[in-house]
Fold each of these.
Amino acid sequence: MKLTSTLAVSAALCALTHSATAAEAPPDYRFQVERLIEGIPQPMGLALAPDGRIFFNEYGGKLKIYHPKTRAIVVAGELKIFKDQENGFLGFALDPKFSENGWIYCLYSPPGFDGQNLSRFTMQGDTLDLASEKLLLQYDEQRQQCCHHGGTVAFAPDGCLLWSAGDNTHPHADSNGYGPLDERPGREPWDAQKSSANTMSLAGKVCRIRPKPDGTYEIPAGNLFPPGTPKTRPEIYAMGCRNPWRMSVDAQTGYVYWGEVGPDANDDGPRGPRGYDEINQAKKAGNFGWPYFIANNLPYADYDYATKKLGPLFEPLLPINESVNNTGIRALPPATPAFLYWPYRKPDKWTEFGEGGRTACAGPVFHWKPEFEKTNGFPKHFDNCLLFWDWERPFIKWARLDEKSDLVGLEPFTGAVVASRAATPLASGATKIKRPVFAVFGGDGQLYLMDYGEAWGANGDSQLLKISYVSGNLPPVAKVQPDFLAVSDAPDGEKKLSAKDSRDPDGGALTFNWTLQPGGKPLGTTAEIPVTIKEPGNYVAEVRVTDAQGASSTARTRLNVGNRAPKVTFLEPKDGATYTPGQPIKYRLAISDPEDGESSAKPDELGARTLVTGAFRRDDGKEEPLDPGITRMKQSDCFNCHAAEQKIVGPSLVEIATKYRGQSGALELLTKKIREGGSGVWGPVPMLPHPQLTDDEITIMLRWMLALEPGKGGPALLRGLAGEVTTPNPGKPEPGGFVLEATYTDLGRAPAGELSGRAILTLRPR
Ligand code: HEC
């Protein structure tokens, strides 16, 4: 009897703990990720207007608007800014009554004034009316040296406006990655006591004001120093910040969160602790410690930069700012420890942060509403969780908060979106995000996430994602194999199309309906069908996959009927042969095409359509030797008319890249042009249409093309049946091989379009 009841109790306990965990982790497949925009130069901030428009700013000065319905991107205006030392268009926020007043608050670095402007502008439709500027406030910084300016701009639920400002202090030189306290004459840019720890400076702070309709502002109750306190600025809400780049305000509690980008010291030492990045939480105004404390108030030691003498450790309960560069009060408020923190190496606490580079960023706190189940908003599971991430490492995580907004624990973000900067695609098929830079939840509970991309060039790989969560029945995922089929290569009936890889995320049975497009001729209703089309031509086979609830989706594949593929063979060199790095490699090719003939008979004609590229591939096998963009272009006819650096029939690809680099909407515009052809932009000669290419294929080509820079036209592309390819000489030998790839694209056999053949071999360095 006793035994049974003990069992019953422990079973009940198990059930309790079990249901707590079972409620966890909404399945990845219920998250749907849509890429709204790509290729935004230096995207920074993001705001959703009540009418559905998405506002975003570029660090270089532009404010842009994305219209979800038309997918159009409009340049609303461009601020005149000073661009050096990380200055720029730092951030913006829309007024809480934006739909009535059109007010937008911008934080930016004006030319001709050493500091930042916080200004209110009025939007006229899609136009940022520059003449409407009302300067709320300006604050001083130094512009002799780099860096750290923050700054996010955000409204709190009580109508107060907050912005974050960096310490405006040079991060390197004699601070050695510890607290920068250089008090020597002329070294103010290396002393964060002039800014973060100075109660008279607005740099190194989170500030809080209440804007008034006339373009001025008042000081709300609850800031760090009551108005009238001598030697203090009443706008200060949080002091002791280093670079609070990404900040957010909880829309329910008004609590403020920011990621603190921390200093570089690798190790603990006599001058203080190793560097940490932090997520901070301010439930009320406070001093957050920089440059005297880091992480959970680990103190730095005072340090005389002239004599190199170490002083005592700073005291978190009573930090004293004795710097010659301090113009504020001496005895500062006690320091508040960070909410979360992590160093370069794997921490003992919160091991899930792992190790690597650091740039901590705070995103929004998610608050669930029942209607989100209908609007595809995020699930209840994440109610009252703070989204935060590391821009550099990178990772994205949730911090679960309790009803007092205290930390309960850390949880992974959905596996449907993975922060990673590895070159290889994710095996899981999840969406990769390289450097998350800003995130907001819409009123429908969906998440808008801006990815800065890899920080080079025009941020060609930046993207704005919309992430939703489907609670009800999910449409099936339609898949078709292969994604291209040349039918004439095999006897009748031997070629098959398969939609077997299609699946229903909810696990139900699927039905299939195949049609031939254009025209809609039925092809079959089984998962696999034989292809028995006799009429030559280019076709699209479409399969509609439907689940038991009637939800469906389609997949397409292209068919080429009537043309036969060419065969490409290297006569020289032999696969696996050796070469001397830095020396040219001779190659000879033979082409055989059932329609076009043999290269031995028509060397010039077939040679003109033969392209050869060579590139070194390291043995780790991770790096593709060639960008998929160039591979796709070789398989189409692009290189008949275009070369990387010189004009042939069409403009050089580098010229095209230079013209469109960083232009929003360029991808859409050029996709349409490649698909439909046309003339008049570069001259009277038209480009032929390419109706057979899919959007994805064109995007892959354009991504490669638009990243081209003068003098760096990518791998050399050779034409002809014989020639020489130069091989790189890295000086230090690397494990790997030189991959030689030859492609021949035939003339097609009208009405069937062209097909290409390819030969690849790998040579080993001597
Ligand atoms: C028959 C020759 C020809 C072929 C084949 C060709 N192009 Fe072009 N391309 C041109 C010409 C000519 C222009 C200039 C058109 C103009 O002035 O509007 C051009 C322009 C372009 C542009 C710039 C468009 C603009 O409006 O500025 C891009 C991008 C481009 N081509 C990509 C491609 C790609 C990708 C392929 C292969 C899928 C390709 N081209 C195949 C001849 C060609």
Note: The two ends are 80 Å apart (CA to CA).
Amino acid sequence: MRDLEKASYPQRVAVLGLGYVGCVTAACLAKLGHRVIGVDRDEFKVAEVNQGRAPFYEPGLEGLVEEAARAGRLSATTNLGACVDECDIALICVGTPSEPNGNIGLGQLRRACEEISGHLPRRTRPLIVVVRSTVFPGTCEEVVIPALGDRSKFTLVSNPEFLREGVAVKDFVEPALVVVGGDDPDAVRRVASLYDALEIEPCLVSLRTAEMIKYACNCFHALKIGFANEIGSLCSRLDIPANEVMATLCADHRLNISPAYLKPGFAFGGSCLPKDLRALTYRASRLDLDLPLLQHVMASNDAHLKRAIERVLALGSVKLGVFGLAFKENTDDLRESPVVTLIEQLIGKGRELRIFDPHIQLDQIYGSNRQFVLNAIPHIGRLMVADIGSMLSWADAIVITQRPAADAGDLIHGAQKPLIDLSTMEMPGRAAVRRSDAGWVKTLTPTVS
Ligand SMILES: NC(=O)c1ccc[n+]([C@@H]2O[C@H](COP(=O)([O-])OP(=O)(O)OC[C@H]3O[C@@H](n4cnc5c(N)ncnc54)[C@H](O)[C@@H]3O)[C@@H](O)[C@H]2O)c1
């Protein structure tokens, strides 16, 4: 392991819970030069750490615990009170197991917060309480803050853990991601600086965003495994080498292993994705192969389209201008465009429409493309307008279905009409704390164009 003992600002840290996350966090923070006290109700774990042993097997952990305990940078106790008095930062790493109904169990977390709360009145300056356990978005605000009590005695930060058991120490010292969330820039900066010795720029976000990022990551990992296993199972049935297929898929870093297709926006459509999903799942079913993940992708897309339609209807406006008819920008392909379904539904609900698409003039499209839209909406020609200005001046409200070019975006926003942008789920004007050359600064998410 490279030399990590260079914390620019060594801090006194309490780590509550000496399980897989807490013990690895405690030992690694001590390795980074911080003074760490681990707290657990389990006397065995406390005794093991104090004797320089890891309370469970995790590669590399035993050596770290031994070294840090011998150097006097890591100790453990069952007595939380002494820790709260001595430390500036308390990291909560207690378990959040599933309840029988699937909900997250917050009993350990509530109890840990109540215990901390009991020791806060003696403090002269606020304790930075950091939730490192995985908790559903809103838990910090709705459960942790009330359980901690007096707001003048603590500031709350979220710093979810991303380590994987089996490579937990390596994941800690060579992290792929460090997320620190909170509303108090000083506390956020202080927690982020725990990791100064590591070669990573922490992502600074709000409390709820930090909580959500952890869930998004784990769900994405689960989704990826499910996807690989379903594709692999189909490959096996077809006597095709699954590993070769997936390794080749992963060789594409532009469209496959990349941010492509990972931006929340409008439903997908077009001439390929729906068709190919349908064919693959149909052929799998003929092989008696159950691929529930892939079978439900279209249902997921339909549900997303339904939510978009409900959002537009909730606008209440009767005269709607729709920007974009094709399934995405820079194409005139209308086949399986979700916008066509959106328009059908809006017409059915009594909305009047004018539609502008920079790349579509009905008299210039032909073949299956033209057939698709005319089948769905025979009078589409009467709804299409040739210039964006006439649509904007006629409409009471605007619906964007595909990302407009800069000039069209300026015109749309300049019209100053109620607007729903289905092409993005960005939330303009949201504050975030970020590190810049000038230090830690609060920035605003740019307004959606
Ligand atoms: N295990 C992982 O790979 C992993 C990875 C990332 C995040 N997480 C999340 O981190 C959290 C902890 O997971 P874990 O696997 O380390 O759990 P764990 O069950 O191994 O450890 C939890 C520890 O907290 C202690 N504890 C409970 N209440 C306490 C209290 N009031 N005071 C002191 N100690 C107390 C328990 O005795 C136990 O030692 C969970 O939210 C989990 O979802 C786990």
Note: The radius of gyration is 27 Å.
Amino acid sequence: MFKKTLLIDLDGVLNQYKGDFNKDIIPPVLNGAKEFLNKISQKYDIKIFTTRNKLKTVKWLIENELDIFIIDITDKKELAWAYIDDRCIQFRGDFKQLIHDLEIFKPWYHN
Ligand SMILES: [Mg+2]
């Protein structure tokens, strides 16, 4: 079965990152992330989208038993059906709206 690809960010989506980046420590897995990946990986090919060290990321995925849901890790914006990120703003074809969305933007953990 053909599966669409999703690129999913690591920090602030799959883990408990709250804006305090440390390149040596990947925060603990976020509650519900495993169940989420389990569910959507049945329909989509999942790639982790991160600039973190690839080996550290692989180790973290294995330790958290998430590796079985993931087909690759990339730091490039590869072709995908959708991108899931804690710091993205969706462009809806309207630049005025985009400026507004940018001005009110906050990651979910800064509420
Ligand atoms: Mg992030």
Note: The pocket of magnesium ion is lined by residues 9, 11-13, 85-87 (CB under 6 Å).
